[in-house]
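My main concern about presentation is that the manuscript never shows what a single data entry looks like. In essence, backbone conformation is discretised, so a fold becomes a row of integers matching the chain in length. An entry of this sort, consisting of the sequence and the corresponding backbone structure tokens, reads as follows:
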Amino acid sequence: MYEIKFSQSEKEYQLSTKGGNIFIDDKLVDWDISKTDNQSFHIIHQNQTFNAHLVEVDYESKTFKLQLNGKIIELELKDKMDLLLEEMGISDLDQNQLNDLKAPMPGLIIDIMVAPGDEVKKGDPLLILEAMKMENVIKAAGDGTISEIKAKKGDSVEKNQLIIQF
């Protein structure tokens, strides 16, 4: 079970999958979707066509920016663990201490936007990691000061490889 919130409407939807089918608010989503490239999709739903392009992904905050028929749409995804933590009242804990940044997936470092000694705030972009032909902006999970950068622009990194120390 997932919860999706669109920033434009603030409405929340429940998304689930059963037997290979997708359900939104327990209603079967009847669509024809085909991938046109690594970041784009062609969708037919209720006799309407849509072109969707994934513009930006932030895996840390689970936010996505899509271009749907030319219009930018931002959405936030909460998984079972996020919903459980929220239900327990511990989803908004203050993250005062930043942990070391490790690569969330294998990829190529396209750009590093910080240097040792830089102070960063939660949400500040730290680097761009290209993975599966998608550029992913990796952002700070909290406030902190950059202690050391263990990789450089152009480096290939493996999943969980240390990149930045705070």
About this structure: Helices lie at 80-87. The mean pLDDT is 87.
